[in-house]
Design a protein that fits this description.
Blueprint: H1 3-17, E1 34-38, E2 47-51, E3 59-62, E4 68-72, E5 83-85, E6 89-94, E7 112-116, E8 122-126, E9 135-137, E10 158-166, E11 176-184, E12 190-195, H2 207-215, E13 219-221, E14 228-230, E15 235-240, H3 245-249, E16 262-266, E17 271-275, E18 282-286, E19 295-298, E20 301-304, H4 306-310, E21 317-321, E22 332-336, E23 339-343, E24 354-359, E25 363-367, E26 374-378, E27 398-401, E28 407-411, E29 416-420, E30 426-431, E31 447-450
Length: 479
């Protein structure tokens, strides 16, 4: 079954059984937007940048009180993610023409990946990059601020996640919308690349998993006009490991954690991989199975039940290694969405076996990449909520570790950003007011917090505490 068919079918079913579908929603239909919680003394204060997913609105930069301090309407027009660079520069996808919104490498219908200065002048351009979901700048492994590794080198190499249309009979008999990673130098030359389908044999997938994938490789229409493809693996994050404690401790024992190696998140297969930069081979894999008898091996040692204790990861986003210099540096952090993903045997919830893994809540997990031991987890349960679905984004989303130990979380499906402490207190919250005209949703793929000094063109704003009302006594006046 195609993903779009599933979503459309679910919407049609809901509409057919309800006179007013809106009344059936299990979450509030009236709630505040903008900054709804803010405790300045507990936050790592700065500006926050995000793409609105609304073509006419593009990318927005806000202060801690939710005030818009800058907007770029032609960067990130429903393409993601935009990133703020030190000096007041912005990077993101730009359409050469309104119809050119493709995500295929070097295709005439694809977007450009650009860097613009504060005055919107393009200072770097990778034409027809077709970037989707992620890219990284030389000198910073993950695209967000870390001490000693600011995001500022737009003139160096850039790692770009894109697509290519390919055929691979071992994966499916249908054309694939394959994930392609290219590293481009300052002259625009590709100096390294990686195509996912070429490494299918290095990925440890069960037989039933591969059989279902062959029949239903998430085949759907792409953003390239008239082209369908199997988005079989759906990579949604790609970053360098960067400098880390493992490599510093023992380069032979922890060779897999070479700072140049690349870690990727594969949503549809419920897997994350580390790719050897030199050989291009897959060296490290988590998922797709997390059963009690699933065995995790690392460094010649077996860790029984390590995968089951980590817990089933479904449809995850933003798998990355926390950069050195930040609390938790060297650990892996993942926004584990839940929702639906994977391939396997058919069951009542997945009659074709497509997206057979399902769960109706999300969590952010931080774990040791050697043992898979969970170091920190954030979810509704950790916040003391009774219902796990109270922390839930079934797609998109991200998590950024901040220098003070807090974590900025993007619950993207509902346009919600939360800065939470290690003890799970929400000290800042913002709800995006940017809704699509037709879909009536305020999706945000990924938000980033940057220090104030990344934007020297602006003065440090006044930080005003925001205390939310007691929801049990808050009323909207009639009339």
């Amino acid at each position: 079954m195609k993903r779009r068919e599933f979503l459309t079918g679910a919407a049609v079913a809901a509409a057919a059984t309800l006179v007013n579908p809106l009344k059936a929603l299990s979450f509030p239909t009236v709630f505040p937007h903008g900054t709804t919680i803010y405790q300045p003394e507990k936050c790592w204060n700065g500006f926050t940048v995000f793409g609105t997913e609304v073509e006419s609105e593009g990318t927005v930069l806000i202060d801690m009180n939710g005030n818009v301090v800058k907007q770029w309407k032609d960067i990130g027009q429903a393409e993601h993610p935009p990133k703020m660079l030190k000096g007041g520069y912005l990077a993101g996808a730009k359409r050469p023409a309104p119809d050119k919104k493709g995500r295929v490498w070097d295709d005439p219908y694809s977007t450009d990946l650009v860097v613009v200065d504060w005055n919107d002048k393009v200072v770097r351009n990778i034409p027809r990059a077709g970037m989707h979901h992620d890219y990284q700048f030389e000198g910073n492994p993950v695209g967000y601020h870390a001490p000693g590794m600011p995001v500022d080198n737009y003139k160096g190499n850039i790692l770009v996640l894109s697509h290519k249309f390919v055929h691979n009979q071992f994966i499916s008999d249908k054309e694939l919308y394959d994930d392609y990673i290219a590293e481009v130098d300052a002259d625009g030359k590709v100096v390294w690349d990686w195509l996912a389908s070429e490494h299918f044999d290095e990925m440890n997938f069960p037989l039933d998993f591969k059989k279902t994938m062959y029949k239903y490789p998430t085949f759907s229409m792409t953003r390239t006009p008239g082209r369908k493809g199997g988005d079989w693996i759906h990579v949604n994050a790609a970053s360098y490991l960067g400098p880390n404690k493992w490599w510093d401790e023992d380069k032979e024992k922890y060779a897999v954690f070479n700072p140049e190696n690349i870690i990727i998140s594969c949503r549809q297969t419920n897997t994350s991989f580390i790719i050897d930069k030199k050989t291009k081979k897959v060296l490290w894999q988590v998922g797709p199975e997390f059963y009690r008898d699933s065995m995790w091996e690392f460094g010649g040692k077996q860790y029984k039940r390590a995968l089951s204790k980590l817990g089933q990861i479904i449809g995850q986003h933003h798998t990355h290694m926390i950069p050195k210099g930040l609390p938790g540096g060297g650990n892996i952090m993942v926004y584990d969405n839940g929702g639906y993903a994977g391939y396997g045997k058919r069951n009542p919830g997945a009659p074709e076996g497509w997206s057979d893994a399902r769960r109706d809540y999300s969590r952010v997990i931080e774990f040791d990449p050697c043992t898979l031991k969970v170091v920190w987890e954030h979810s509704a349960k950790q916040m003391g909520m009774r219902n796990k679905y109270q922390f839930y984004s079934d797609y998109v989303s991200s998590a950024q570790r901040l220098p003070n130990g807090n974590t900025l979380i993007t619950n993207g499906a509902v346009g919600q950003f939360q800065e939470v402490t290690p003890d799970h207190e929400i000290v800042w919250e913002y709800i995006s007011p940017y809704y699509t005209a037709n879909g009536k949703y305020n999706l945000v793929y990924r938000a980033y917090r940057v220090p104030y000094d990344y934007v020297p063109q602006l003065k440090k704003p006044t930080e005003i505490k925001v205390t939310p009302p007691d929801n049990t006594t808050f009323r909207i006046k009639a009339g």
